[in-house]
Specification:
alpha+beta; Transposase Inhibitor Protein From Tn5, Chain A, domain 1; 2 domains; nine-stranded mixed β-sheet; four-stranded antiparallel β-sheet; 16 helices; 19% strand
Length: 453
Amino acid sequence: MGSGRERMAARAGAAVCGGLGFDDLIGELRNLASTFPDKRTGRNTRFAMEDVVLAAFSVFWTQSPSFLAHQTAMQQARGQSNAKTLFAMTEIPSDNHIRDLIDYVPPEAVFPMFNRIEAQLEAEGYVEAFRVLNDQLLIALDGVQYHSSQCIRCDQCTVREHRSGKVSYSHTVVTPVIVAPGRNRVLALQPEFVTPQDGHDKQDSEHAAAKRWMNRCAEHYRERKVTLLGDDLYAHQPLCEAALGAGFSFLFVCKPTSHKTLYEWLDALRRTGHVEQILVPRRKGRRREIDTYEFANHLPLRAGEGAIEVNWYQITTTEANGKECYRNAFVTNHAITPDNVADLVEAGRARWKIENENNNTLKTQGYHLAHNFGHGKHHLATTLVSLNLLAFLIHTVLDLDNGKYRAIRGALSSREMFFQHVQALTCYLCFESFEALLDFMMQALELSYIDTS
């Protein structure tokens, strides 16, 4: 019957679907990179933009800052390298050459890859598996800072003057992801960067970046029944109006400290018995807990004329002795009923997946999001982050669609360990293909694979 690992790997086995295979995705990226702007003129073009972009991407896919140096040495010694066999590079440019050319490539040039991958995932049925709340697709929005310095700056930096007189320069990106309750994966979508905007005197913000993302993606998602998730920062009238105007529904965290008028209305409704309440006892291991759901429809989001109406609900979890162990409240444009309030709570709590499965993973589990891979003067920092996010998305695609990859990731204790294995192997050995790399790792880890296609 084989070892437990072998049986686990056999259950995980699944064929790679057309269009989502690693070679297909690399080919797509190479084709896209051929259209990227190139600052060079004349004959000084030894390295094609395709090689420059794939070289940068290879560093993020392997999460090995020294990957290209090892492949250059391997190419010189053996006449072959993983840069060519795995990442379809014709030539291996230097780090300085990569930074110099990508500095002039705006991050938007990378965004079509996110759309193409999402479309292929949708065609293969993976996106449908994320639908909840009567076929809604949940997209969580959140901003994450990935650079802060008092010395290093570029044209795209946010400038902040502190009370001490010091000035800091930072970069923030809004990272939308498709999430679903009970799923431990998220699907990264094209990001939106907080950067100075032409024709605007005010400093850019996460609010403004989120609105730009909504407007840019409105047509794409208009017929897809999307609900946006966000923290309390998003639960304010301008963003709610922007979401509705772009054809999205919304479900945002709503705190009493920042929504005084709404909670005054709630207090009045409670006094007259018009806030509905449902108690659901349950067990968590040996402990007995009670979930209390409260909700009310048609409340003003803020004071004054023109306030939009929202629907409010809250979950409070208490132990048997009455001790409160969890509380959170949300506002939404979805009508709330006794039948759907628990599902709405689960959807709202799925927002945390953008923190846990996305931002924290990117910062602490091998992707080194906050590391300065290169700042440049124009677009380098933002475009490198876009390639890093793309690498994360392609890792997710492989985990969904490639049984061998999934078995290897399951056999290793963490993403970082997976990267360590890939880094070591590609440093010393040249693999003729991505499948050859996976086969070598499967054999070394004593994993078996059954093609269930």
